Amino acid sequence: MKLPRGTGAVLAMLLPGLALALWLVLGAGFLLMALDGAARTALVGTLAPVAESHGMVLVLWWVLFSAGAGLLARRFYVAHAEAPGRLADAARVLAGDPAAPHVPATGPAGLKALAEVVNDLAGQRRALQDDMARLVAEASRDVAFQRDQLAALMAELEQSVVVLNLEGRILLYNARARTLFRRLFRAPGSAAGGTGEGVGADPIGLGRSIHTVIDRALMDHARETVERLMGRGEARPSARFVTTTPLGHLVRVLLAPVRAEAGGAVTGFVLLLDDITDEYEARARQDRTLIDLNESARASLAAMQAALDMLDYPDLDAPDRERFQAVVRDEVTGLGTRLSLAAEATSDTGARWPLQDMLGADLAAAAARRIAADTGHSVATDAVDADIWLSVDSFALIGALAFLAARVAEAEGGADPAFALRLARAGGRVHLDLAFADAHAAAGGAGWPGAPMGASQLCVRDVVERHGGELWLERARSGSGACFRFLLPAASEGHAEAAAPAESRPAYFDFDLFAASAGSHASDDRLLSDLAYTVFDTETTGLDPAGGDEILQIGATRIVNGRILSSECFDQLVDPGRSIPEAGIAVHGIRPEMVRGKPSIARVLPAFHAFAAETVLVGHNVAFDMRFLTLKEQASGVAFDQPVLDTLLLAGLAHPGEESHSMEAIAGRLGVTVSGRHTALGDALVTADIFLKLLPLLRARGIRTLGEARAAAATSYYAKLKY
């Protein structure tokens, strides 16, 4: 067990006196053993009266000698043991960061001289780095100007732009994309907000996965489409799809590859996003208007036809003739009025569900692979016209084909349905057939289309209507087979290729994420420099989480690729549901009126959990904060089970010779400016800066991976503290 600080110093001061006493006792013992019996008796008889009368003088003399020797030993230890260690720690900090404070010139003359030399070398290095920074700044001024122009242009674009690496992690997005995701991809019932009434984290952020907001299957399908187009030599390969958000909005997405040079390897993907909900709803209203007009026009035409038929009778008297002529006039007038209203209602251009031009052979190949994977039966594609282009939502259509094939396979009871895909022209449209062998089993066993449709079949119908097409079951004349036939739109002649997106560099970017690892190793085996972190802090009503104290505020920031993302922060006040002690208000400054009406911790923690997803949690004396989070797992429904690092423990590993590892002391040693102290977000930002300064010091001590850091921190005295 590690002794408390100060205990070692007391023992060091007592050690010389104890050694002297032991030496004298051993010397007296050896002397007595060397004398014969008479001499030993005479010596004891002589010394006993002296010891009895003047023993306290000897003890006092021994105590004075021990104290003096202890002080000298302590001074010697501080000067020749602790001082070199502190000098080494300070020199390591200065070696990693030339802007760190100077090495203190304390201790013997030799150490003072050495400290002055280290400071001089650090000053020369700082001057050299300043000169290099000035030269680099001058050389890159033109590049920075162009970058700023692009950033300004990107900020003004109406298009929402997101750039991903190959893993689907976000490395760039503009302000419009951030606004769009905040507005459309937030779960119902939550609202954007920092310290306001609403609660929630941004759905996107640098280093976070796009799959948390856009379905992975959609993204994978789009990527396969792009790779297929690239393999065929398309100059501007891209894929389009539409996705829905938790709030029911429709978002059109265009995905295009990012390549270092024309024809080079793909390093990532660009997403261009548009909210098409209003356009789609406007088009739906137009369609309903046209359907109503069609029905009313049929009725009017029928009435006019009946009236005209009656007017053909030669013996029709004048009053009846006038009455039928009035019917014709009224119906013509009414029809004209309805046409005018319909024209006015449909004057605005709307948008149907966006479809993408796709080579029919590519669609058939992708559908065959999906059906084979779902059913275990191969699919023939020999009867596919290789020159046909379709205008389709390929992801939805392939899903519909796979569903129908699964129903047929289920009805066949294990027999091979002999699936085949056929594609042929049908006038200005296209027939896509899913053929199979046993029509009776498909029609009777599977129940399509006569039986009431389930939810999945309704989805198939929705896919058909989305394409403005038809679907029916058609049996072969021989009775040996059948097919589901889709009537689909053909692509226009000379189908347009997607325009390649322009390069851009908005405010939120980190291009180093292009080189992110594949994430195939366990987190403990990954380098500390390769991980993403959420650095957080809490302010609480008191220091006893198990005794009823509650969280008042949570603040956090993120670190990605060794950079603090100050634009991506979480800062939320919390209604504790209890009183706030005056003693605590003096520390954190949070008064009852500031948290009145704010969200409860049960609402705040799920939002913070989403903000910290797929990252390592970092805090200072984080065991205290984690205890509060753990106690609220049941109330909030979320558990923070990711790895956790503590700057208090890491500082002890980096500077084992230092007595204090408070946040202020660590910041002072590392040259970190402390601001916003005792606010959750302020402390989180200071902790993040400290954490980044500690990483090179840990690396110098052989602590490189997350597993090594956790194992080393677990041996610290502070790691044994419980809350």
TrEMBL record:
<feature type="transmembrane region" description="Helical">
    <location>
        <begin position="55"/>
        <end position="73"/>
    </location>
</feature>
<dbReference type="InterPro" id="IPR036397">
    <property type="entry name" value="RNaseH_sf"/>
</dbReference>
<feature type="domain" description="Exonuclease">
    <location>
        <begin position="532"/>
        <end position="700"/>
    </location>
</feature>
<keyword id="KW-0540">Nuclease</keyword>
<comment type="function">
    <text>DNA polymerase III is a complex, multichain enzyme responsible for most of the replicative synthesis in bacteria. The epsilon subunit contain the editing function and is a proofreading 3'-5' exonuclease.</text>
</comment>
<protein>
    <recommendedName>
        <fullName>DNA-directed DNA polymerase</fullName>
        <ecNumber>2.7.7.7</ecNumber>
    </recommendedName>
</protein>
<keyword id="KW-0472">Membrane</keyword>
<dbReference type="GO" id="GO:0004527">
    <property type="term" value="F:exonuclease activity"/>
</dbReference>
<dbReference type="InterPro" id="IPR006054">
    <property type="entry name" value="DnaQ"/>
</dbReference>
<keyword id="KW-0378">Hydrolase</keyword>
<keyword id="KW-0175">Coiled coil</keyword>
<keyword id="KW-0812">Transmembrane</keyword>
<keyword id="KW-0269">Exonuclease</keyword>
<dbReference type="InterPro" id="IPR035965">
    <property type="entry name" value="PAS-like_dom_sf"/>
</dbReference>
<feature type="coiled-coil region">
    <location>
        <begin position="111"/>
        <end position="167"/>
    </location>
</feature>
<dbReference type="Pfam" id="PF00929">
    <property type="entry name" value="RNase_T"/>
</dbReference>
<keyword id="KW-1133">Transmembrane helix</keyword>
<feature type="transmembrane region" description="Helical">
    <location>
        <begin position="12"/>
        <end position="35"/>
    </location>
</feature>
<dbReference type="InterPro" id="IPR012337">
    <property type="entry name" value="RNaseH-like_sf"/>
</dbReference>
<dbReference type="InterPro" id="IPR013520">
    <property type="entry name" value="Ribonucl_H"/>
</dbReference>
